[in-house]
Design goal:
about 240 residues, 9 helices
């Protein structure tokens, strides 16, 4: 798995922090890592982008950003409003392939969900994944509504003959409600793929040293971590029950 695409079921659900956790675990295992952000939107020059944030949390990764557009919009729309050239799937694939020749793992973090448009032709991150032949990791919310969004994303991947590596919950609450606890069992069924971890809410605010120490406990062995889905579900039930007292 030299290249892994990281997408989400929507925006602001923890993709960057999950990407950082995957990177941190890979680094701890002695692998070299690059993080590619094809299009960073909603930030101006000099502001910290997602790739740089991954490097801050995870450690010594090669952080690459192909384009930056100031408006917090879909990449194609943001590029058009900025009067700038968009980033297409060929450019994304070329950059990822080059990084893969120099690193053990390349993480490509998308913008928003899987089918957000990157250019005027309607190309998406899914098109870049197809060109790369790379598996896709889906980051999903914990609570109510996530099953439908995850099922739709998984269906879109299957329709394009893309491999869904698994699902990671991006912001697991300290006191999970009933929906979140039930979703631990239901998400793999909706996705047709395994649940590969749960990153706690607020993890991105941890000091980098603590983030790196804890990252392995958030991700399953398939992502080189030691997270155990059954044990986590039991602990979630206990914390959820305690929170209702």
């Amino acid at each position: 798995m030299p290249v892994l695409i990281v997408t989400g079921t929507g925006t602001e659900i923890g993709k960057t922090v999950v990407t950082a956790a995957v990177a941190a675990v890979a680094l701890a295992r002695g692998r070299t890592v690059a993080v590619l952000k094809p299009a960073q939107t909603g930030l101006g020059p000099g502001e910290t982008g997602d790739a740089a944030e991954v490097a801050r949390l995870a450690g010594p990764v090669t952080a690459v950003e192909l384009a930056r557009f100031p408006d917090p919009l879909a990449p194609a729309t943001a590029a058009r409003r900025a009067g700038a050239a968009p980033v297409g799937p060929d450019e994304i694939a070329d950059a990822a392939e080059k990084l893969a020749t120099e690193h053990d793992l390349v993480l490509v973090e998308g913008a928003g969900g899987l089918l957000v448009r990157f250019d005027e032709t309607g190309a998406t991150l899914a098109d870049a994944a197809r060109l790369l032949g790379a598996p896709v990791l889906v980051v999903a919310p914990a609570g109510l509504g996530t099953l439908n969004m995850t099922a739709l994303t998984a269906e879109a991947l299957r329709a394009r003959s893309l491999t869904l590596e698994g699902v990671v919950i991006g912001r697991w609450p300290a006191v999970p409600d009933l929906a979140a606890r039930c979703n631990l069992a239901d998400l793999p069924e909706s996705a047709g793929a395994p649940l590969l971890g749960a990153v706690p809410e607020g993890a991105g605010a941890l000091a980098p040293e603590e983030f790196r120490e804890r990252a392995m406990s958030w991700l399953a062995p398939r992502l080189d971590g030691r997270w155990d889905a059954r044990m986590f579900a039991r602990e979630a039930d206990a914390s959820g029950a305690a929170g209702t007292r």
